[in-house]
Amino acid sequence: MTPPTDASDMPIDVTVLGSGDAFCSGGHFHAAYLFETGGATFLVDCGPTILASMKQRGLDTARLDFVVVSHMHGDHFGGLPFLVLEYMYERRRERPFVVLGPPGIESRFWELFRALYRDVAAKDLPFELAFRELHPDTTTEIGGVRVGAVRVPHQIEDTALALQLEIAGRRVLYSGDSPWFDRFIELARDVDLFLCECTAYDDPMGRHIEYRTLRPRLAELRARRVVLVHLGREMREHAGEIAVECATEGMTIRL
């Protein structure tokens, strides 16, 4: 008799589907990260280029169980209407699909879907589309994944989140979009992977991290692996000067 599989022994693959900023600098896609675990396949963030990125890599969109959204800027959640459209017509879906995100995610999704496809949005979906709000300093569980939400100072009127993911004993921190704030040092301690946004190299980019700010703090980050994401034009131009691993589409990180 074959013994049951221990989920903690199963690999977790994180594939970068979009490593770029809002401008697709250098021709890179909008933010999206595919997680494949023993119990679930899901996205963290879902930028507008999600279908192009998945289909270029031969990834079946029907495999997705849910999406976790860090914040409601278009380059992070604007792919959701296209994913729903895919499930209505191309890969007709019957099983439920869940979207987790900051407070207001459901109303913002429908506002966007109606703006893009008013006629289609008026139709009944062939599957259940459910929404679950992630509130700062709380955790929720779905598909064997524990999701913690931490508010970051990227937005004022809306809520932007860093995400703490715990899967079969492994831990991932995703900064979402945010300027540097010192709590990242605490949050990143002993995590297996820290996906850390770094939009600019030297020039201030508003509510984002620039490399000149991050560099002197790298020694304080006790994550087992740090990968920079959400890379803008400046970061691409200075790629040879950066002493930290930078994400690019198609790279897979095994945990």
Structure explained in plain terms:
- The chain has about 260 residues and is an alpha/beta fold.
- It contains eight helices and 14 strands.
- Strand 10, helix 6 (about 185) and strand 11 form a beta-alpha-beta unit.
- The strands form two sheets. Strands 6-5-4-3-2-1-14 form a seven-stranded mixed β-sheet. A seven-stranded mixed β-sheet has the order 7-8-9-10-11-12-13, with no helix packed on it.
- About 20% of the residues lie in helices and about 25% in strands.
- The chain has helices at about 50-55, 75, 80-90, 105-115, 120, 185, 210-215, 235, and strands spanning about 15-20, 30-35, 40-45, 65-70, 95-100, 130-135, 140, 145-150, 160-165, 170-175, 195, 225-230, 245, 250-255.
Summarize the structure.
The protein has 8 helices and 14 strands. By secondary structure, it is of the alpha/beta class.
Question: SSE order in H/E notation?
Answer: EEEHEHHEHHEEEEEHEHEHEE
Beta-strand proportion: 25-35%
Helix content: 10-25%
Mean pLDDT: 95
Order of strands, main sheet, comes to 6-5-4-3-2-1-14
Please outline the major beta sheet. 7 strands, mixed
Radius of gyration: 18 Å
State the separation between the terminal residues, measured CA to CA: 28 Å
Count of individual helical segments: 8
Helix and strand composition category: alpha/beta
What would the principal axes of the Cα set say about the shape? globular
What's the number of extended β-strand segments?
14
* Low-pLDDT sequence parts: none
